[in-house]
C-alpha cells in the first residue's frame, strides 16, 4: 500500500515537472509568462523572465521566483497608487481651505474692492485658475474665482473616486498573488512531507 502511494506521488510530481519544463521551453508560453510579469516579448534562448534568470533553476524554484516577482510588481504599483491618492487628498484639502478663504473674503468688503492674498493667488495661478498679476478684484471676480475653485475640486473628487477604485483593484490583485504564492509553497511542502512520510 505504501509502495503504491509512493509510486503514485512520484509519478504525479514527475508529470508536473515534465509539463512545467515543457511550458517553459515553449516560446509561445514563455512569451505569455514574460509579458505577464512585464518583460518584452522575445524568445527564451537566454531563459530569462523579466529580471529573473531561470537558467539552472528547477521548475519549482522558477515558478516561485516568477510568482514572487509578480507579487513585488503589484506591491510597487499599489505603493505608487497610494502615493497618488494621498497627493490628490492634499490638493483637495488645500483647495477647500482656499475656497473657505475666498468665501470669507467675499463677505467682508463693503466698497466692492477685494484684495486676494498673494499666496492664494500664487497657488491658484499655478493651477491655471487665476491671474497672479491681477491685484484688485471686484465682487464678480471673486465669485468667478469661487466657482472655478469649486469646479476644480469637483473634478479632483471625481478623479479621486477612480483612483480609489484602482487602489482597491491593485490591493485585491496583490492579496491574490500573495495567496497563490502561499498556496503554492504549502502544496510543495505537503508533497515533500508526503513523499518523506511514505518512504519511512
What integer value in Å does the Rg equal? 30 Å
Total beta-strand segments: 4
Fraction in beta strands: under 5%
Helix content: over 70%
What is the overall shape? Answer: rod-shaped
- Uncertain regions spanning at least 5 consecutive residues: 22-27, 40-49
Sheet bearing the most strands, described? 2 strands, antiparallel
Reading the helices and strands in chain order gives HHEEHEHEH
pLDDT averaged over residues? 75
Number of helices: 5
**Looking across the biggest beta sheet, what order are the strands in?**
1-2
User: Distance N terminus to C terminus?
Assistant: 13 Å
Secondary-structure class = mainly alpha
Q: How are the elements arranged and paired?
A:
Elements: H1 2-25, H2 27-36, E1 48-49, E2 52-53, H3 59-106, E3 114-115, H4 118-126, E4 136-137, H5 139-199
Antiparallel strand pairs: 1-2, 3-4
Overview of this structure, please?
With 200 residues, the protein is mainly alpha-helical. Helix content is 76%, strand content 4%. The chain contains 5 helices and 4 strands; from the N terminus they run H-H-E-E-H-E-H-E-H. The protein has helices spanning 2-25, 27-36, 59-106, 118-126, 139-199, and strands at 48-49, 52-53, 114-115, 136-137. It has a two-stranded antiparallel sheet. Strands 3-4 form a two-stranded antiparallel sheet. Strand 1 (48-49) and strand 2 (52-53) form a beta hairpin. Helix 1 (2-25) crosses helix 5. The chain is rod-shaped and about 100 Å long. Mean pLDDT is 75; it is low at 22-27 and 40-49.
Amino acid at each position: 500500500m505504501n509502495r503504491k502511494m509512493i509510486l503514485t506521488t512520484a509519478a504525479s510530481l514527475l508529470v508536473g515537472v515534465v509539463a512545467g519544463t515543457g511550458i517553459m521551453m515553449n516560446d509561445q508560453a514563455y512569451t505569455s509568462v514574460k509579458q505577464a510579469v512585464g518583460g518584452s516579448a522575445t524568445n527564451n534562448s537566454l531563459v530569462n523572465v523579466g529580471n529573473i534568470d531561470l537558467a539552472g533553476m528547477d521548475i519549482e524554484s522558477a515558478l516561485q521566483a516568477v510568482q514572487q516577482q509578480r507579487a513585488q510588481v503589484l506591491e510597487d504599483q499599489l505603493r505608487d497608487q497610494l502615493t497618488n491618492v494621498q497627493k490628490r487628498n492634499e490638493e483637495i484639502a488645500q483647495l477647500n481651505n482656499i475656497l473657505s478663504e475666498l468665501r470669507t473674503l467675499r463677505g467682508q468688503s463693503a466698497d466692492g474692492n477685494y484684495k486676494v492674498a498673494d499666496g492664494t493667488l500664487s497657488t491658484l495661478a499655478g493651477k491655471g485658475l487665476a491671474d497672479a498679476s491681477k491685484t484688485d478684484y471686484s465682487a464678480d471676480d471673486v465669485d468667478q474665482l469661487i466657482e472655478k475653485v469649486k469646479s476644480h475640486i469637483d473634478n479632483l473628487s471625481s478623479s479621486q473616486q477612480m483612483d480609489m477604485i484602482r487602489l482597491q483593484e491593485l490591493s485585491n490583485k496583490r492579496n491574490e498573488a500573495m495567496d497563490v504564492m502561499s498556496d503554492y509553497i504549502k502544496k510543495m511542502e505537503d508533497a515533500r512531507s508526503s513523499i518523506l512520510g511514505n518512504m519511512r
